[in-house]
């Protein structure tokens, strides 16, 4: 059965593009677009909408991290980095600029397929939840969040956020004043079948705090209880 997810692959290695294109088509993905450069990727994004983007870090006409930031201005589609740069710093940088996952070269193409399916599955589950069941609007003194509209407003201004950031925020809004370990948050928000590490949670919480205007050195909304976990403390004013 064909999967109609629209996939954009950005990599300057033609061999990698061909290998992924062949593997994905064998695994029944039928809508695949490839780009060799940053310029080609941005052009493709203007012409089409994509459900997931595979992005190399080292491109001939620009840095993949910078491109990720630019892409985030246009779409909230999940971004999976594929790169030969394998240090923890590179992985954390990729997540901090808007990436959802990071896989290092060389890789097994079937592992890439597995990660794509896991990310898309989580994305579809989230969209179904907010589209069919989640009608509640969360209103607080400093921000409001409407899951069914995927709309976050902070101090009256609309703030762009990725699907994963909104999913994390929804988790916190539904569980106020409860303490969760990092591993538990990862399990409940990312899912046990998604590849990654617990530091992914830390990076996404830091990004979410910034968008909520929650001071990183002394946060009051998403609080870190050292050695225990995280707790969401709603700003003054109940959700309704």
UniProtKB/TrEMBL annotation:
Subcellular location: Cytoplasm
Residue ranges occupied by any Response regulatory domain in the UniProt entry: 6-120
Entry keyword set: DNA-binding, Phosphoprotein, Transcription, Transcription regulation, Two-component regulatory system
Keyword RNA-binding: no
DNA-binding region extent: 135-234
Keyword DNA-binding: yes
CC terms in the record's Gene Ontology section: cytosol; protein-DNA complex
Family matches, as CDD domains: REC_OmpR, trans_reg_C
Gene Ontology BP annotations: phosphorus metabolic process; regulation of DNA-templated transcription
PLD phosphodiesterase domain span: 1-26
Modified residues (4-aspartylphosphate): 56
Record-level Gene Ontology MF annotations: catalytic activity; phosphorelay response regulator activity; transcription cis-regulatory region binding
Domain OmpR/PhoB-type, residue spans: 135-234
Transmembrane segments: none
Official protein name in the record: Response regulator transcription factor
Origin species: Cytobacillus praedii
């Amino acid at each position: 059965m064909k999967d109609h997810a629209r996939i954009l692959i950005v990599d300057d290695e033609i061999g990698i593009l061909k290998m992924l294109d062949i593997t994905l088509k064998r695994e029944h993905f039928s809508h695949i677009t490839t780009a060799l450069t940053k310029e080609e990727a941005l052009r493709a994004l203007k012409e089409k909408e994509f459900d997931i983007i595979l992005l190399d870090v080292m491109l001939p006409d620009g840095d993949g991290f910078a491109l990720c930031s630019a892409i985030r201005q246009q779409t909230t589609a999940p971004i999976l980095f594929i790169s030969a740069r394998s240090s923890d710093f590179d992985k954390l940088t990729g997540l901090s600029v808007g990436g959802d996952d990071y896989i290092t070269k060389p890789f097994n193409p079937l592992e890439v397929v597995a990660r794509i399916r896991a990310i898309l599955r989580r994305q579809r589950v989230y969209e179904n939840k907010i589209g069919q069941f989640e009608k509640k609007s969360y209103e607080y003194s400093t921000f409001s969040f409407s899951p069914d509209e995927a709309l976050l407003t902070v101090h009256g201004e609309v703030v762009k956020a990725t699907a994963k950031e909104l999913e994390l925020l929804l988790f916190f809004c539904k569980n106020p004043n409860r303490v969760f370990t990092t591993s538990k948050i990862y399990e409940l928000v990312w899912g046990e079948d998604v590849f990654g590490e617990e530091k992914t949670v830390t990076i996404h919480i830091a990004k979410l705090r910034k968008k909520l205007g929650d001071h990183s050195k002394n946060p009051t909304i998403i609080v870190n209880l050292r050695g225990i976990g995280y707790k969401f403390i709603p700003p003054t004013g109940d959700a309704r």
